[in-house]
Amino acid sequence: MNILTFGPNGSGKGTQGAIVKEKYGIDHIESGAIFREHIKGGTELGKKAKAYIDRGDLVPDEITIPMVLETLGNSKAKGWLLDGFPRSLAQAEALDKALKDAGMKLDYVLEIKLDRQIAKDRIMGRRLCANDNNHPNHIAFDAIKPVEKDGKLVCRVCGGELSARADDQDEEAINKRHNIYYDETTGTMAAVNYFKKLQGTSIISVDGSQGIKEVSQLILKELP
Ligand code: AMP
Fold this sequence. Notes:
By secondary structure, the protein is an alpha/beta fold. The protein is about 45% helix and about 15% strand.
C-alpha cells in the first residue's frame, strides 16, 4: 500500500504517519527527517540543505528530488507512506513521472486539513526524540506529552533526549513554510490538487483539528 500524506506543518501528519506505519508495516519516508539525519551526520548534502531549512525555505529540487526518489527506490517494505514530499507542483510532476516509470501504484492520498493559525500554535510545542523520529512528543497534548526524568523532559516512548527544531521556534520560518503549503498555484496545495485528480487513487481527507486518537480513527477507517 503506497500513500502520499499532505498537511501543513503542525497538522499532526508525522504523528498520524507513525500510527499508519506501525499498523501496516510500511515505510514512513519523511523528506524533512532525511534532511535532519544528513545534517546530524555532517554529510555534504546536509551542509547544502541546512541554510534553506533554517530559514524555512524549500531545499532546491536538484537536491531534494533525487534524494527522495532514491529513498523510495530503496524501500524494501510492502509499501510506503511519503510525508513532506511533494511540496510543490514541480515535485508532484516529478514524482508522478517517477512512479509511472517504476510501475509503482499510488493507492491513497491522505490530506489532513488544518487552519493556518491552529497549525502555527501547534508547531512551537512539538519535540523531537533523538532516538526515533517516529516517537511523537508534544508539550501541549496529553496523549503525547513528554515525561519528566531527573528534572528534564524526555521522550515518552523511550526516555530519549528531546530537542526542539530550530525552524519550529522561528516565527518567520514557520510563516514561510505555511506560505508554501497553502499556495494553490505552484505550492503544496497545487501538488495536493494534482494528485487528487489522478485516476485510481483514493482520497482520504480528514479534519486535523481534533485529538490524535479521533484523527487516527478517521484515517484508519478509510484504509483496508
Ligand atoms: P519538515 O520536517 O517536513 O517540516 O521539513 C523541514 C524542512 O526540510 C522544510 O522546511 C524544507 O526546508 C526541507 N524540506 C523537506 N521536504 C522538502 C521538499 N519536499 N522540498 C524541499 N524542501 C524540503
